[in-house]
Structure formats: C-alpha cells, structure tokens
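tool_call predict_complex ligand=prephenic acid
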Amino acid sequence: MRYTFLGPEGTFSEAALLSVPGAYDAERIPSTSVVTALAKVHSGEVDAAMVPIENSVEGGVSATLDAIAAEGDLRIVREALIPIRFILVAPEGTLMEDVRAVSTHSHAWAQVRGWMGDRLPHVDYIPGSSTAAAAVGLLGGESPGYEAAVCSPIVAEQHPELSVLASDIGDNARAVTRFVLVAGESAELPEPTGADKTTVVIPLPEDHAGALMALLEQFAARGVNLSRIESRPTGEALGSYFFSVDAEGHIANARMGDALRGLHRVSPGVKFLGSYPRADGVAPLVSPRNTDAAFNEAEDWVRRIRG
Ligand SMILES: O=C(O)C(=O)C[C@]1(C(=O)O)C=C[C@@H](O)C=C1
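tool_result ok
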C-alpha cells in the first residue's frame, strides 16, 4: 500500500495514518495540502490519503469537505480519532518576549486563540500549510518571517534543535480531530461491524420551503441517526448549497439502504462516499421496527400481496 497524508512528518495527520494497521511499514508520501493529497488518490499515485475532516472545537475542515465532494470518485474506508495537544516551539535561545509572529495551520490557530490572547496578545499570525510545516520552517537558518510555531509534541521529539516555549496551549484539553482514510472508488467496501458510519454528499435539489426537511425525513423515517451535517456552498451561485452528512449505520443495513434509495429519489445527484467502522465502536440504538428483520418482513408482506 502507498499512503499520503498532510505533511511533513510530525503532523496530526501523520499520527492518524500511523494508527492504521500496516501503515508504519508502508510507503508514506507527505502532501503539502489536503487537495493535493486527494488528487494523488484520484490519479492513482497512491492508494489512500489520511485527511482531517472535523475537529471537536473548530468544526468541519472545509478544504476536505469540498475536495471530497468535488472529486466524486473517492471512498472513505476508515476513520481515526486523534486527541489534540499543542505546544509552542522556537529555535534554541528564543525567549517568549522575542516572539513577534507565530505560524501554524489555521485549524490549530483557532484552537489556541484564547491562550495566545492571554500570553502573546500582540503576535501576528502567519498561516502555515500544516502544524509541522510551520515548525520545520524555523530550522532553515534564514528567517521565515515568524519566531515560533504551534505544533504537536511529536515535532519537538523529532527536532531537538527546537525548544519548547510552552506546552498544552490548546484552549480545550478535550479537543479531538477526526480523520478519514480516503481511497479510490474501486476500494473494497468495508464489511459491516454493527458500529458503522455512512458518509454522503447531498445537493439541495430545489430551493423551496421544506427542501431540507425532505432530505432529512429520509433518514428520520427509517430511524437512521445523523452524527454530522454541514452545509457547504457549491461555488456556483450565492444560495447554492450541498450537505455533507455522516449517518449511523452501513449501506448493508436495510434501514440505511432504504434511506439512501429515498434520498436518491429526492436528490438524484446524491453521492455515496463510503460506509466504514466507527473509530469509537459505539453501536447505534435501533428500534425493533427498523431492524433488518423488520424491513425484510415488510418486504415479504408486499411481495405476498402482489402475488
Ligand atoms: O497540521 C496538522 O498537523 C494537521 O494534521 C491538520 C490539522 C487540521 O486540519 O485540523 C489537524 C489537527 C489539528 O486540529 C490541527 C491541524
């Protein structure tokens, strides 16, 4: 297997990839953005990409949601949950009072804003392509235009030339980022485990009162719970949106299959992005009227009547 991830080494994306069995010994090619990582999957250069999709504090990662929706022929085959801890690093000898500008990934910056406001209220923020890229930028010799970077503690272990100015600087100690492993469309559908998630992208079919309700009731009527729903602009015109949705269950479950059939009728452009095991292993509560047996029994009943 050949994998890619948002690099360089030391990002949270790499930590998520290393949680995949076998990934440690596999070929791991860093990418400079989520878009290029997914393009490598699309072109067949790699088999799969590990990309961030949502953070418990900052919400959805728009770059990922948009790129997955746009590529169309991709499949999510796995998810990983990584607890997020941030540190502030700088080249050896740098003092806190020397720091005028700090670089990191925009999602990381959003998660340390409170700490920065308290401890370094006057610093400028310089966006970085990832947390580790911002930290490694400090090592070149030439000034990168900032004196410190926010990154994972792993980066400090990998680069002893960097000193840690502060640890645990995240505003929320329980922050977790969810990553998804994205493969090509021909990837084998993971087997249902009883604790699965299904991700779909649904264009809002027509802009009229109740259009969103028509989509949601496909899930509600079959007892399928949603664990994430986000609207994103299609980019075509103001007011044109698609929904990115995670639903509890696997397409192999009768209730999910039925909900997706209903969705396809309401919004024919719906894209199936994958059914895969939940990282937390939590099985959904399924009422007796929404089990596979109940759906099969109802199907048989109609078949008998039709003769
Ligand atoms: O820059 C990294 O280390 C990443 O893996 C990206 C990313 C993100 O996109 O949210 C991952 C986890 C953290 O929430 C901050 C940054």
